[in-house]
Amino acid sequence: MMPHRRWAPLLVAVLVLSIGAGEVLCTAVDTEVSAGNNFAAWTPSSWRQTAQPEFASGTGVNVDLVTFPGSIILASTGTGIFTSAVHDTGMNGAKFDYAFWDRTLPSSTTVSLEIRVSDNLSSGEPDAGWQVLGSGTYASLEGTEGRYVQWRAVLTSDSPGVTPVLEEVRVYYRPV
């Protein structure tokens, strides 16, 4: 019999080992304290875009998807906008946790990300306004819920021949 103070690390170990396996449902029984302690945990689902075919499903203005396959760069100095395809999480009210994006920023360049999430589509796109996530490398999406998600990147450069590079975007969500 396992003492009641030692079952928590076991549950953490089970959860850590199961990352990436989808939803994890565990039941722990601590006979010294109660008849049963139920513990439910989840691992997030993610939408990851990092390859040329994934980026090619979106649309862009003044962006280049060919020069560096699997990355988005500016086609010319100034501003470029890339809008991803819409991703269906498969569940209304999915709760979004974080967005992460990998980018390379030479001097005088920026990459800013925006996202929109909704349970409904209008003309094939989420019927919500764009939420600015910023120009860092990640943003919390706490309080954001919906079935459909789409992101948009704004790339800028003030120097001719110098471009930021967007390599990957990951959006994490979980079931209701």
What tags apply to this protein structure?
disordered N terminus, 2 domains, six-stranded antiparallel sheet, mainly beta, Jelly Rolls, 9% helix, 2 helices, 176 residues
Describe the structure.
The protein has helices spanning 7-17, 52-56; strands at 24-28, 37-41, 45-49, 59-61, 63-64, 72-74, 78-83, 87-88, 95-104, 109-118, 121-122, 125-126, 131-134, 138-145, 148-157, 165-174. With 176 residues, the protein is mostly beta strands. Strands 3, 5, 6, 9, 14 and 16 form a six-stranded antiparallel beta sheet that branches. Strands 4, 7, 8, 10, 13 and 15 form a six-stranded antiparallel beta sheet that branches. Residues 1-35 and 37-42 have low confidence and may be disordered.
How do the strands and helices of this protein lay out in sequence?
Layout: H1 7-17, E1 24-28, E2 37-41, E3 45-49, H2 52-56, E4 59-61, E5 63-64, E6 72-74, E7 78-83, E8 87-88, E9 95-104, E10 109-118, E11 121-122, E12 125-126, E13 131-134, E14 138-145, E15 148-157, E16 165-174
- End-to-end Cα distance, whole Å, is 35 Å
Q: Which architecture of the largest domain does the CATH hierarchy give at level 2?
A: Sandwich
Main β-sheet: number of strands, strand sense, barrel status?
Answer: 6 strands, antiparallel
Low-confidence stretches: 1-35, 37-42
Instruction: Quickly count the domains.
Output: 2
- Rg (CA only): 21 Å
Structural class: mainly beta
Mean residue pLDDT: 80
How much beta, percentage-wise? over 45%
Shape: elongated
Count every helix, treating DSSP H or I runs of 4 or more residues as helices: 2
List how many beta strands DSSP finds: 16
Q: What is the element string, with H for helices and E for strands?
A: HEEEHEEEEEEEEEEEEE
The CATH class of the largest domain turns out to be Mainly Beta
Helix content: under 10%
The CATH topology of the largest domain is: Jelly Rolls
